[in-house]
Amino acid sequence: MNTASLNTSTQVSNFSRAALAALLSFILSVLPQNALAQMFQPGEVLEYEVSYLGILLGTIKMSVDKTDTLRGNNIVKAKANIDTAPGIPFVEFHSIFETWMDASAQHSHQFLASSRKSDNTWEYTRYDFLYPQTKIHIEEGTKQTRTKEIDITTPKRWSDGLSLFFFAREFVKSGRFVNVPTAIMSDTSRTLINFRDVQREAITVPASKTPIRTVYFKGEAKWRGIYGLEGNFEGWFSDDDARIPIRAKMKVLVGKVDINLVRWKRANWTPPQG
After folding, report:
1. Sign of the alpha-carbon dihedral angle for 194, 224, 152, 158
2. Do 78 and 98 form a contact (C-beta atoms < 8 A)?
3. pLDDT tens digits, residue range 10-61?
4. CA–CA distance, 50 with 60 (Å, rounded to integer)
5. What does the alpha-carbon distance between residue 18 and residue 21 come to, in Å, rounded to a whole number?
6. What is the DSSP code (8-state) at residue 106?
């Protein structure tokens, strides 16, 4: 083969690789919204009651707000309102979690936690996951004052306390044991979830008059969150493409609590019958 032929062959090879890279880039940009995260539906609202030994401790309202872009990334914006029930002694909190998670549901790009204190002031913690700079920027403060600002250098991609909920929904049927890097309480840790040994179970919750077919799994939080949330947990997600969290059991300050779906709003969704 002469030099001209060799150069032509090299140019064709380089063009082919460039074309393939462009095609893969296009596919990956489309897949997160259309295939990888089928459970995302803007407008979805899920409401839960948290109880201990039959006593209502609080409520959680989770919503998927919208799809958008952030720093050039396709994201899904979601929010959770967490409130203690009236009359609970010694403990009262009202928190809002907001996540700007990747449309693949595999990691977060930004997270904001806001909590109302007893004097009605609001404190916040914000995480900016700056992956090109291999760091997490964390900022704490109030509406009037920034009280703390730190950077954590890390090459990993991270889930936050709310996006972790959607990570589990996306991968509950993956058949894998996952170790999820988790940024929480102004620190970094990990969450272990066993999707390898899932079981199918029919359970009943206040949101449905008939049993719901679910996928059951276990995991362990290697961190300590709000209200002392830590350690082993259990989850039951609907056994369908929506993968709605139906029930969970988690360890908090008072012991292991039950979290049950009581209401939902999601277009064209009916719980799979158990």
Report:
1. positive
2. yes
3. 443 444 555 554 554 443 444 333 344 578 999 999 999 999 999 999 999 9
4. 8
5. 5
6. S
The backbone torsions φ and ψ at residue 89, rounded to the nearest 5 degrees and listed phi first, read -75, 150
Angstrom distance (rounded) from CA 101 to CA 160: 9
How many Cβ atoms from other residues are within 10 Å of residue 197's Cβ? 10
Closest listed residue to residue 137, CA positions, set 152, 123, 122:
152
- Return the SS3 of 195: strand
Lowest mean pLDDT among 46-50, 117-121, 181-185: 117-121
Within the chain, strands assigned E span 45-52, 55-70, 73-84, 94-102, 108-116, 122-130, 135-142, 146-153, 177-184, 187-203, 212-221, 230-238, 245-252, 255-265
Of 123, 193, 133, 185, the residue nearest 160 (C-alpha): 185
- Best CA proximity match to 207, nearest among 249, 265, 268: 265
**pLDDT tens, position by position, 128-159:** 999 999 999 999 999 889 999 999 999 999 99
Closest among 138, 134, 160 to 147, alpha carbons compared? 138
